[in-house]
Amino acid sequence: MAPATKPIMAAIQKHLQALLDDYRDLAPPTCQRLSNVPNALEMLRLVHAGRPVIFDGFVPTKSSTSSQLDWCDPVSLSQVTGDAKLSIAVTPHGLADALHKATNGTTYFVQPMTEKMTLDAFFARLADKESEEVYYLQSQNGNIYRHSYEGETGNETATPELSAFQQYTESEVPFLSEALGRKPDAVNLWIGDDKSVTSLHRGGYENIYHLLSGSKTFRLFPPVEGYLLDTLFYPAATYTRFGHGANSSLMIQPDSEPTYPIPWISVDPLNLPRDTPLRPIEVTVREGETLFLPAGWYHHVMQSTGSQGICVAVNYWYDQTIQANTYALDRYVWRSLGRVDLLGEVDDESDDDTVT
User: What is the model's pTM?
Assistant: First the structure.
């Protein structure tokens, strides 16, 4: 960092901390729980507030077919897709899309190996308790439904892998679609066991996440804490299988050129130091409950299985709503640069807060 920029960066960090302090004064470090499904107006207020909320009563399954499918039962779910081959993420330890150190000492952002198999074969892998490999259906990107919008093309060129589940799941969340005036970009099904963990990352969508079987524990960080999370750039890699049969193993394979560094969070949310300024919100979403996770929130997810050994969830991704009122952030950044006068404010801080 150039010496001339250090005072400015120090001042910006100071004011980002002041912004975070203001946020914490106004927002309690908890997740609100509602006993009923919000209507469109109430949902719009929740989106505007930008705080996570759990509520009961939302049913993402179609009433005409809901009695025909047991979401807790692997056999029932396997019958929906039959012999179709699906994309399954495979890792040696359950951490997909995460940071790992290779044998050469380099830390990579590593994506899982993707293996094609039937849903029945996938459930057999989950039931194999002696296997060291972890399997997770996390294909996302609209694996049940994809929606395109006016002016957009090419968003529905391929049939979603799990389109067979369309007969059982709704294509949108009515009260959120009405609140935002649009349909979700994607509807996804997630299936795994308690070995799969989602590493800490930032969500880019207004997210409605519903548990159909089992439970998930979210560790949440608001967007204003992002500057404390030490996002760095890492080379990209993918788990690749080496060897055959019982002698095979998954190893980190650096991606081929051209490849680009991936920005990822280096903080481990499960091992925060005692003196950390971070204040995560931990909340468990259980079977039948729904989490609204606003765009921009950082989240780490662990899961527990239901009565028949699987955890199943469906979620709806809505394009994020950009708030026009960024006055508070503008004020702090302009103050860091000594240009508060451009906002028509009186600088109520001491002269040594201004960087020249």
Answer: 0.86
